[in-house]
């Protein structure tokens, strides 16, 4: 989701949302503001998107106090000071992929005692009558010994509030070189829960227990299996179509036009996944550096949409990212076609009343 910044950050709040850049909005998502890493799900009969907030100007009445552990963590080494502003997650719901309602602070560090900053890249699932939100916190590096990594929070509603389920990270250290960020939770047809994650050029897959609160051994006995494909950087995502597993990821530099989405296929959720090709990249007429995506299938159809972030034309700060949504198609051989970014966005797509509202 985030990596070391090679250039200084620009305070991007000075770009008003009414400027010409916002004409690039897809289905009104860009007009929601500065967000990145969006994961789309279908919950309670609606589309839900859980993104990372990248705004440097949280409301003045937010986060008035931090507990002693959070204060200590925030006063220590932080890769970049702007990460201190990432202390909560918003969500967005829609009946049709066009009209969106914002749900503010569905996860807040006031409800996660060990998380102090760098709250990034959530992934969500509905299971056992509850909603679970996995997230990265504290941006731990290989040499760090303080608490941080991937946590899990739970709520009775998809719009939160989500409350820490463990009191500590679910994954709190590096395994196989993978920084514990960018989680993606995936339930397979047989009920197995797989968990993909990893930054700094490495990706792991693990299995979660039925209550989602621990990592359990896979069939071969391993706990964390590295599945890093060629050119992988971060942002893993998994879909399944016609019995084939499509493992997708982001590659390139998240702060510039080299960023994009690639994928591989396998007959197993644990790979191996050989890189097939890039399906989403910069279009100089539309936007730069699209990536860290998710995808959704309209139930009962073979219609797919990809949700991602991108840099509007004319912006220069690496954190100046907005959400977008476009159609995603497969060819006759089952390969994902190159995604065409659009300015105009989608027509409304209502969910069928036949869909289970959970």
| Distance between the ends | 28 Å
| Sheet with most strands | 5 strands, antiparallel
Could you tell me the number of beta strands? 20
By CATH, the topology is Tachylectin-2, Chain A
CATH superfamily: Glycosyl hydrolase domain, family 43
| CATH class designation | Mainly Beta
Rg over C-alpha atoms, rounded to the nearest angstrom: 19 Å
List keywords for this structure.
single chain; 358 residues; mainly beta; Tachylectin-2, Chain A; five-stranded antiparallel sheet; four-stranded antiparallel sheet; 1 helix; 20 strands; 37% strand; disordered N terminus; disordered C terminus
List the helices and strands and how they pair.
Blueprint: E1 35-43, E2 46-53, H1 68-74, E3 88-94, E4 101-108, E5 120-127, E6 130-137, E7 149-155, E8 163-164, E9 184-187, E10 193-197, E11 204-208, E12 215-216, E13 225-226, E14 234-241, E15 244-251, E16 260-266, E17 274-280, E18 287-297, E19 304-312, E20 322-328
If you had to describe this structure to a student in words, what would you say it looks like?
There is one protein chain. The strands form five sheets. Strands 9, 10, 11, 12 and 13 form a five-stranded antiparallel sheet that branches. The protein is built from one helix and 20 strands. A hairpin with a 2-residue loop joins β14 and β15. The longest helix has 7 residues. The protein has 358 residues and is mostly beta strands. It has one domain: Tachylectin-2, Chain A (5 Propeller).
């Amino acid at each position: 989701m985030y990596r070391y910044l090679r250039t200084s950050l620009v305070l991007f709040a000075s770009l008003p949302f009414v400027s010409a850049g916002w004409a690039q909005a897809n289905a009104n998502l860009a007009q929601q503001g500065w967000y990145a890493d969006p994961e789309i799900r279908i919950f309670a009969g609606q589309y839900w998107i859980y993104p990372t907030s990248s705004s440097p100007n949280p409301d003045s009445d937010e986060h008035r106090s931090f507990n002693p552990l959070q204060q200590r963590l925030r006063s220590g080494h932080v890769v970049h000071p702007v990460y201190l502003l990432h202390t909560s997650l918003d969500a967005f719901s829609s009946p049709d992929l066009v009209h969106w309602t914002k749900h503010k602070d569905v996860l807040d560090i006031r409800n996660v005692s060990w998380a102090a900053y760098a709250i990034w890249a959530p992934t969500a699932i509905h299971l056992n009558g509850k909603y679970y939100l996995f997230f990265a916190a504290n941006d731990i590096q290989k040499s760090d010994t303080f608490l941080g990594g991937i946590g899990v929070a739970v709520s009775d509603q998809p719009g939160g509030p989500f409350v820490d389920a463990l009191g500590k990270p679910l994954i709190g250290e590096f395994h196989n070189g993978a920084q514990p960020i960018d989680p993606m939770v995936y339930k397979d047809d047989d009920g197995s829960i797989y968990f993909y994650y990893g930054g700094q050029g490495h990706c792991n897959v693990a299995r979660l227990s039925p209550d989602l609160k621990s990592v359990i051994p896979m069939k071969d006995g391993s706990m964390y299996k590295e599945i890093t494909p060629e050119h992988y950087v971060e942002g893993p995502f998994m879909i399944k179509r016609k019995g084939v597993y499509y493992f997708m990821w982001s590659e390139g530099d998240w702060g510039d036009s080299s960023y994009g989405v690639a994928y591989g296929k396998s007959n197993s959720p644990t790979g191996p996944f050989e890189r097939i090709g890039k399906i989403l990249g910069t279009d100089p007429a539309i936007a730069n550096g699209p990536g860290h995506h998710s995808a959704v299938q309209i139930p009962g159809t073979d219609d797919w949409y990809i949700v991602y972030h991108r840099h509007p034309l004319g912006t220069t700060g690496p954190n100046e990212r907005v959400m977008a949504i476009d159609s995603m198609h497969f060819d006759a051989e089952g390969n994902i076609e190159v995604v065409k970014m659009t300015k105009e966005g989608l027509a409304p797509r209502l969910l069928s009343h036949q869909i289970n509202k959970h």
